[in-house]
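User: Reviewer 2 asked us to show a designed sequence for the structure in our supplementary figure. I'm pasting the structure tokens here. Could you produce the per-position amino acids so we can include them in the response letter?
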């Protein structure tokens, strides 16, 4: 398990610089095996040194590219595969480990409608952000599949790690899209307030 200060979503890409000895060992063992490990958000504490408190909902990551440096550090490119739930944390020796189970993906009552609502909210944020900074990127083309679109949007949304964790923990796609739309609406309100002050 790799506790981090960021949330990894399924379908998202996460580059990692692995420098702590315990995570170097974890990476080496992952590369010798199925090239997978779990990523969870740190609730309290820091990424370096241990002693952190972690959330139990995370994402299975797969290493898609690895480069070992001469001093033993690794530069990794990983991709989120699917959500997981920690059922039991094991000893952190030699690195954080846990027993996990996959979390099933449920669509919900109106996932396509919730997808449209989320995209509208995201478009509103992009439009307002462009009024502040013309260099803001265009609205991405989100996948037609509501589940995948929810994860793609969550990975790109201007939300903090605790809000991202809320999105990851949502029980079904419709709920996830609804929560994300509400968070984007909040962001739009903040942008409007900023524009009003300028």
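Assistant: Here is a per-position design you can include in the supplement:
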């Amino acid at each position: 398990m790799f506790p981090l200060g960021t949330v990894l979503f399924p379908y998202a890409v996460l580059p990692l610089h692995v420098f702590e000895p315990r995570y170097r060992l974890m990476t080496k063992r992952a590369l010798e095996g199925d090239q997978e490990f779990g990523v969870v958000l740190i609730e309290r504490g820091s990424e370096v040194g241990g002693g952190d408190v972690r959330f139990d909902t995370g994402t299975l990551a797969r290493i898609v590219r690895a480069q070992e440096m001469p001093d033993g550090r690794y530069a990794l490119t990983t991709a989120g595969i699917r959500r997981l739930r920690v059922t039991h944390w094991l000893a952190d020796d030699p690195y954080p480990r846990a027993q996990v189970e996959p979390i099933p993906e449920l669509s919900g009552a109106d996932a396509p409608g919730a997808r449209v609502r989320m995209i509208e909210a995201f478009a509103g944020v992009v439009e307002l952000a462009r009024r502040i900074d013309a260099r803001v990127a265009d609205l991405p083309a989100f996948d037609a599949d509501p589940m995948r679109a929810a994860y793609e949007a969550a990975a790109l949304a201007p939300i903090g790690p605790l809000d991202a964790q809320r999105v990851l923990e949502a029980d079904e796609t419709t709920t996830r899209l609804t929560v994300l739309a509400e968070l984007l609406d909040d962001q739009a309100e903040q942008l409007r307030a900023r524009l009003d002050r300028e």
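For the response letter, you might also mention the following. Residues 111-197 form one domain. Strands lie at 2-4, 13-18, 36-44, 53-68, 74-89, 98-102.
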